[in-house]
Amino acid sequence: MGLDKANASGSGVRSLAWVLVLTGALHLPGLFNPFIIDDYTYLDTVHDLTWSGAVAVLDSPTMDQDASGVWWTPNFDFPFYRPLAILTFALDYAVWGMNPFGYHLTNVALHLLCTLLVWRLGRRLLDSARGALAAATIFAIHPVHSEAVLWISGRFDLLACAAVMGATLAYLRWQEASGGRRFAFLSLLLFAFGLGCKETAIMWPAVIVLCELLRWRGPAATYRPRSLAWGAVAVGLVTVLYLAQRFRLFGGLGNLPPPYGVDLSAPGAVGQILFNLALYLLDFVFFVQVDAIYLADFWRNNVLFFAVCIAGALAVLAACWRIAGGTPAFRSAMAFSALFAAPALLAMPGERNVYLACVGVALIGGAVYAAVVNWASEVPARRSRVARAARGLVALCAIIVCVEHLLMWRVANGAERVYRDLLAAIPDPPVDARIYIVNQSPLNAVGFTQGVKLRYGREDVLACALTVSPQLEGISTDRVVRTGPRTIRVVRDNGAFFSSFLEQFLMFSRPDKLAESARRVDLELVRSVDVDAPVTELEFRLPYALDDDRLFLFTWDNSHLQSQVDLIWRGDWPSLVPCPVESPSEAEVER
């Protein structure tokens, strides 16, 4: 009997190895994606990091107003404190420099590590080798993870998940008679590391307490009250120190301003939280991608279809409960998923935010699969149907992940073209060059200033967007009119400035600081701006005359696009071209 158990264990390890190999192969194309959006902000933080600078990272917000590549971002520190994750970017930079391949390789390796840890937790909780392997497989290829793995900036979630999973496994070993205090210390250390990677890790103590109440270690589990009390004190101390640092940096816990986060004082706050929950539920069950900017509007415009999809997802969840809901592992997995998803409900929806919560989803799937396999074990026809259904689900997930790879590749290379066009147009900018983009690509609205400095290797070159296209397709047009030797007026046709979700997203809900924000990038607003009314014109005084060799005006020409489908699938991407400057009309001169 012992030999059979050992053989089963060896077979499980071999099966897991195949899962890891195939998952790595599935993510192989993503290794060749370029940097995009936030990636450049973190590279800028670490590209010249010294030992003293590393200490400063430990005592600084992870992202501030300089992350944005637009002029109107006010002085504001995001309530992100993720210093230990930032230092992993420094390690990558030391090895790979500006080659994105190595950063993507690190992300894939972290995802494989998390998959291994899910398998280990599944073996501990599910008491089923097949169930644990199913949980690991679901976690490895669930399309909800595409954003966290494919996007270098998703690393925060990968690291936090690895730390929390390691802390959980160490805690379980500590609670066993043979565990020893070293596992208690390891659990505490990994919890602290997780806090230093992403805020979501702070839910871990609550998850442990709730899962213990649900008897996740089985009805015969033993408890050592004195050890648990000392553990609670230690975890509480780490948590208090972490919260004290957040209060010192942000003057409180630090809330994300709308539309980054949910304004809990607003009348529609509960509705927004429930909407976010529905979006994640659809992603967990039906693999429908979460997108705060585009798909959210689709669902709001198709309420009946949205309701039907939600009802279907709830029906699937109810069926899972009926099949395996009586087991402590299933109930604990539900708690794991719910508590780690809770912080994501208060922020702008994004798939990377629920990477850790999906551990619970994977364990739910493993518990259900183990129960179904047990039900089908005595009837060959049932076993065959279950096997076919499992293979079909794996194939479906793999296909969706491949499609998301293709989408990410297209989007990332579209954003990359802006940099390539700029470097081709200005291969060697003059000293103290100022580069301003009209109708900037939304894919470069964050991290563009840092990206330009890093690509040129020059600290004196300043680039930012005067305006950002409110959408990827060319619906509105931003024209530039000369109003003086150093002044221009930007006029938006078929739209208004600061009205779209994307533009509000970049404003941080602080419109009273526009003039101050402009001065940070060598601009001056000629006239004050009232964002409570439709703004169709902006007038700037530039740092140099329009004919100065140090001043460059470009525009992102997306006028030929009619839809987002064109943007993703057509071969001709928008390009960055010199911005035409019109002479003022008589009416404009009089004005």
Shape: globular
Count of discrete alpha- or pi-helical segments spanning 4 or more residues: 22
Spatial sequence of strands, sheet with the most strands: 5-6-4-3-9
Distance from first to last alpha carbon = 92 Å
Question: Largest sheet, if any?
Answer: 5 strands, mixed
The percent range for helix content is 55-70%
Given the helix and strand composition, which structural class is it? Answer: alpha/beta
Total domain units: 2
Rg, rounded, reads: 26 Å
**Number of E-state strands:** 9
Return the average pLDDT rounded to an integer: 90
Proportion of strand residues: 5-15%
Outline the structure in words.
The protein contains 22 helices and nine strands. It is α/β, with parallel strands linked by helices. The model is unreliable at 1-7 (pLDDT under 50). It has two domains: 2-32 and 79-376, no CATH class; 410-590, no CATH class. The protein has a five-stranded mixed beta sheet with strand order 5-6-4-3-9, with helices on one face. Strands 2-1-7-8 form a four-stranded mixed beta sheet. The protein is globular and about 85 Å long.
Short description:
The chain is built from 22 helices and 9 strands.
Question: What is the strand and helix layout of this fold?
Answer:
Elements: H1 2-26, H2 39-46, H3 51-57, H4 83-96, H5 100-126, H6 129-141, H7 146-150, H8 155-175, H9 181-195, H10 204-213, H11 225-250, H12 269-286, H13 295-301, H14 303-324, H15 328-341, H16 358-376, H17 380-425, E1 434-438, H18 448-456, E2 462-465, E3 477-482, E4 487-493, H19 501-507, H20 514-520, E5 524-525, E6 537-541, E7 551-557, H21 564-569, E8 575-578, E9 581-582, H22 586-590
Parallel strand pairs: 1-2, 1-7, 3-9
Antiparallel strand pairs: 3-4, 4-6, 5-6, 7-8
Helix pairs in contact: 1-5, 1-6, 2-4, 2-18, 4-5, 5-6, 5-8, 6-16, 8-9, 9-11, 10-15, 12-14, 14-16, 15-16, 16-17
